[in-house]
């Protein structure tokens, strides 16, 4: 067996705010439920060839998820955060050999960008 891709589905309280947030990070809304219904309750956000799915849960009874993105250069992510005016926490030279930059989405999902130190 081979798994070619894994795409997390994140529950969100306000899908329009989440879409706008991910677009600030450089993701594109490549598919959403407006293609087949009048309700915006699902969206696929894609960056490069990787996707995150967003699904509306109006009751908000869920716990935020944590997603790690492995990147080649954390400075490019830092520049992206600065351009998008996003606040993030940068942890350089972690004891486990990484640089990490993280932030929270509007629904409080933790997004952590990780660069392994060679």
SSE diagram, text form:
Layout: E1 9-12, H1 15-24, E2 28-32, E3 42-47, E4 50-56, E5 66-70, H2 74-84, E6 89-91, E7 98-104, E8 110-116
Which ranges are low-confidence, i.e. pLDDT below 50, for 5 or more consecutive residues? none
How are strands sequenced across the largest beta sheet?
Answer: 1-4-3-2
Domains (count) = 1
Number of helices: 2
Shape, principal axes of CA atoms: globular
Question: What is the CATH architecture assignment?
Answer: Roll
Q: What is the name of the CATH superfamily?
A: 2,3-Dihydroxybiphenyl 1,2-Dioxygenase, domain 1
Give the mean pLDDT. Answer: 91
Descriptive account of the structure:
This protein is of the alpha/beta class. It has a single domain (9-116), classed as 2,3-Dihydroxybiphenyl 1,2-Dioxygenase, domain 1, CATH 3.10.180.10. Helices cover 18% and strands 37% of the residues. The protein contains 2 helices and 8 strands; from the N terminus they run βαββββαβββ. Strands 1-4-3-2 form a 4-stranded mixed sheet, with helices on one face. A hairpin with a 5-residue loop joins strand 7 and strand 8 (110-116). The N and C termini lie far apart (31 Å).
Key structural traits:
single chain; 118 residues; alpha/beta; 2,3-Dihydroxybiphenyl 1,2-Dioxygenase, domain 1; four-stranded mixed beta sheet; 2 helices; 8 strands; 37% strand; globular
């Amino acid at each position: 067996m081979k798994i070619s891709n894994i795409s997390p589905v994140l529950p969100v309280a306000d899908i329009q705010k989440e879409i706008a947030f991910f677009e600030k990070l450089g993701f594109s809304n490549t598919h959403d439920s407006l293609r087949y219904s009048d309700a915006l309750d699902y969206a696929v956000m894609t960056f490069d060839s990787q996707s995150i799915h967003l699904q509306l849960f109006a009751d908000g009874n869920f716990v935020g998820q944590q997603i790690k993105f492995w990147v080649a250069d954390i400075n490019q992510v830092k520049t992206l955060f600065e351009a998008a005016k996003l606040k993030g926490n940068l942890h350089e030279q972690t004891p486990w050999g990484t640089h990490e930059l993280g932030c929270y989405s509007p629904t409080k999902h933790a997004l952590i960008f990780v660069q392994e130190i060679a």
